[in-house]
Amino acid sequence: MASPADFNVSQVGGGRTAVCTGDWTAILMGEANERLEVALRGVSDITVDLTQIGRCDTSGAYGLLKAASLAASPPKFVAKPEVNRLLELVDHAVKFEPTRIVQRHSVHQLFERIGRGVIHLGYEAFDTMVFFGHLLVATGHAISKPHKVRWAACFSLAERAGLDAIPIVTLTTFFIGAVVGLLGANMLTTFGAQVFVVQLIGFAVLREFNVLITALLLAGRSASSFAAEIGSMKMNQEIDAMQVLGVDSFDALVFPRFFALFITIPVLVFAATIAGLAGGLVVAWSQLGLGPTFFFQQLVDNVGPKNFWVGMSKAPVLALIIAAIGCRQGMEVGGDVESLGRRVTSAVVQAIFATILVDAIFAVIYMKLNI
């Protein structure tokens, strides 16, 4: 039965003996070690009898050793073999000097860190290509066997991850179109070429800003959502349970999210186009006096539908990239919350970077093709 730690100091022969009783543990030691320190302070020729104690842990051993260190001469411990081993272990740990960690900053470490980053980037690129391949295989399965696709999940995700973003997409592109119109009005008025503001707004909105702003907003909104949702399932071992049941995680989780963005991003780009042109029209009408009839006539005559389809052609590719990056980062989540936060952040950063990079590649290709 557990009993509190205690001791009794008695005079035996020519010396003193401190007989310890009870359990010398962190919970039951109480203030016994402090009272023992007072009793042993400055005392010489004393024996500490530990044969009658019940249990002893590292806290109790440390208290006994600390009290013994205050004696005028090192006391003699009389204890059971297991208690002696514990005292030796704690005494060695107390006297052990920690190893000093010398931080050395050198050019070698700088290049080593850069090299590790390059190697990590290569592994990330390889794993991303593997993930894209698996996604294409899952897409092929869905095309060949459409009756096995979870259509309810696809359309639910399309509404939540795509269509619900229409307000923020249209509002953002409206102000982008207005800003482009203001910049064009200020610059072209200097040269007396205010009429070309319509062409500037048309080319900027139809070719670039409609799809780019939409993709960037989805990269921050949907990619992070996909990574967090799949990452939470990974942490709760739901994906492992799906694999045990014979359910392919790509068919159940990745493909519905890709399909949701694939069918909604053209709608979002179209809405962004209308909103961007509306923002430019408001500026052109209010600042330059160019009415809606003249504005849209200039768009039809000088900009044309070709630039609209140039912008729309980027949408499916960007949908694939955003969905794949978000889902891949979710699949890479470990078993802790820190890993989840790290992967969600990586999903957003990589999706934004990939969106801008792919848009630049499209711009170069269309320039070489003179489109």
Key structural traits:
371 residues, alpha/beta, Transcription Regulator spoIIAA, 2 domains, five-stranded mixed β-sheet, 11 helices, 73% helix, elongated
Task: Give an overview of the whole structure.
The mean pLDDT is 86. This protein folds into 2 domains: 6-95, Transcription Regulator spoIIAA, CATH 3.30.750; 142-368, no CATH class. The protein contains 11 helices and 5 strands. The longest helix is centred in the last third of the chain and has 40 residues, at 249-288. The chain is elongated. With 371 residues, it is an alpha/beta fold.
User: What summary fits the major beta sheet?
Assistant: 5 strands, mixed
- Can you tell me the overall shape? elongated
Radius of gyration: 36 Å
Count of alpha and pi helical runs: 11
Q: Can you count the beta strands? A: 5
The rounded distance between the terminal residues' Cα atoms is: 89 Å
Q: Strand portion, in percent?
A: 5-15%
